[in-house]
Structure prediction request, 719 residues.
Amino acid sequence: MLVDRSRLSEEDILAALTRVLRDLLLDDSIVLTMTTRRDEVRDWDSLVYISFIVGVESEFGVKFGVAEVESFENVGAIVRRTKALLASS
Amino acid sequence: MMDWLPPHADFRGAVRAALETPTDGSQLNRLAALANHRLSFLEVIQLDRALSRIDAAQSTGIAPIRVALLSSATVDQLIPGIRVAGLRRRMLFDTHIGPYGQYRQEVLDSESGLHRFRPQVVLFALTAREATSGIPVTASASEVDAAIHHAICELRVLWQRAREQLRAVVIQQSFLNVAETLFGNFDRLVPGAPSAVIDRLNMRLAEAAAEDGVLLLDVARAAARDGIDAWFDAPRWLQGKMEIAPAAAPTYGELLARIIAAQRGLSKKCLVLDLDNTLWGGVIGDDGLEGIVLGEGSAAGEAHLALQRYAKQLHRRGVILAVCSKNERAIAESVFRDHPEMHLERSDIAAFVANWNDKAANLQHIAEQLNIGLDSLVFVDDNPAERARIRESLPSVAVPELPNDPAQWVRSLADAGYFEATSFTDEDRIRNAQYAANASRDSLLELSQSVDEFLSGLEMSVTHGPFRPVDLARVTQLINKTNQFNTTTRRYTAPEVSAFASSEQCLTLQFRLADRFGDNGLVSAMVLRIDEQDRSTVDIDTWVMSCRVFGRQLEEEAMNIAVEASRDLGARQLRADFLPTPKNAVVSKLYPSLGFNRAPCDPPVEGGSRWLLNLSDYVARETHIARRSE
Prediction:
């Protein structure tokens, strides 16, 4: 199933990110929005964050820079950066 | 990675469904079945979360194995992969991570968290940075060697402490070579080039590990196979000081679990091969001897030949080979005899089953014939339907998924790591000669009119004595691998076995059995402990015997010897427990058959029984086994 990933909407990417975090924490009650911050989600510690980043990278075939990973202020920032990387790939 | 495991159609649904089922042993079975699928690193983390939510140890009675990781890097990301790889083998791991970078203090300080954890396995997962940071690129070969020698000596002290004070199995991770090239192709010619230093360090590490009986978790080898990018992800090192990439955690865990399983006798023992379109291309019954594709001259023929060559190498290192094929037996055997390109010989195959019956029934027959468990079998078949059927009907048999192209099969089989070893003893080297000799003995049994005549015709002799240093590897292997003739199924590490041999409180006995077909090697071992309160009583703590020599009266002769040795110590009675497992029914009546009487109280284990033998009443059994001095 080939999907043109450069055309994915922010909603699609947010849904995928939500699924990655639900899987990592095995908790389907998690709801992410563009403004969700890490400290608002229970158990989203730094180890889970790194796994999350690696999970998103492998899900979309993108690579974030080290500086970006440290500075994403909320989920929306990750969604927008993913969208930008997909559009330029 | 993990291409030998079949993919799962709906992993997310299945893991959630497993958590909905009642909290009993079946939950663990469901999760273990999921662990035996090809999972991404995210799925491995999910499965590990599910595992931590069920109280598996409580509901199944499986005792967790305590594994400590000591590291100079972050290793938390590896834990899910390790636990899920254990789950794949129905082992539960209780893990402990030493404080970051403080592995020396943890080992040397007997009050440390590591010591309180009482690990059964200690893994040193170190980066090369500490050992190599002081070596300048200008260093000469001898300066590099001196620095490496120093680093390895320091490690050996820690290994020794871990073994002696913690009585743990020690595993050392090889050094991941993350150094970038400095001189290009010329790196290897410069002793002080960072990548050359790490290669040299790994060489010396392996030599030291072999000398000290330390096991190696060879991530350097794995990275050479998968590519360094699969194992080292620079951003993760910079962000979290993770030297092993999170995405490599499933493979890392698999490698570690293999070592721990092998050390506990859970490696596979027998490779069962299909014939048509597996050992050769085509169908012998249809295509005939001239029509099948095998050997030099065609790429496909060479691919099948490569599988035969690999099977032969496994055979030479002690893996048993068997054939399970839908064929006329005479026609199938004729290929081994008459095809000039066949690399495997008929005599390499210990059990040859070719008929039209269901393969599941045939695999059970093979296991019985070889006197090994179904869980010791690996079944290689090109036919996906046969593979699926065996996975479903005999889940304990390992069935590697094979790519369509036979060119990839040897690699798949090797990657699966079914035959992981933790030692390579003289017994392994001659095992298959012994199985072949067993076949001759079996035909003698058919010729003999009675068992008595058969046994006397074998011209058996036994040599015995306490465990000597040279016996320790084999005795440890026997104690950990033997499931059937094993009265208590207590597993002991090499340091523990060594401690028995030197203890004043213990009497150790090893038995070697020879007959006119050859030497069977060291086939039985006993650990006896003198009761500390009542020195007239000696306990049989452990008694194991290889299934190769069942029914040869060695149990009687061994008991004669144990009684004599106990009398020499001044003991008046022997006390022995039978602790049942799913596999040791063969010894459930052993002690009464040797003249023991039931003790007034049994051991506190369900189905277990305690037995006593009064040494003054004991009359030595008559056997057909002569005593021979070493």
